[in-house]
Amino acid sequence: MLKYINPHAVKPECVSLFTKEGCPFCVRAKEMLKERGLAYEEIVIGKNATTRSLRAMAGGTTVPQVFIDGKLIGGSEALADYLGVA
Question: Domain Glutaredoxin: where (predicted)?
Fold first, then answer.
């Protein structure tokens, strides 16, 4: 449908972000995404999901864990590399 409406449009990226409250690395990841205009779904461990869910998805329990278009990017440093942040 998007190609029909605008053949030059780029499909928006689907971003999911696993976080925990009070995590400074999670705050950094959210800031990087916002600065680049990337909307994201935030999944808060302990509220929206458990560490078991995080382990099943990401293979570990550290946060943040960022997924873009279904691909695991990793934590805040991996996200910075992915986005080309110095």
Answer: 15-73
pLDDT digits (tens, 9 = 90+) for 24-72: 999 999 999 999 999 999 999 999 999 999 999 999 999 999 999 999 9
* Adjacency order of strands within the sheet including 71-74: 41-44, 15-19, 65-68, 71-74
Is the residue at 53 inside a domain? Answer: yes
d(CA 16, CA 23): 16
Domain encompassing residue 36? 21-83
How far, in Å, CA of 54 to CA of 13, rounded?
A: 21
How many structural domains is the chain composed of? 1
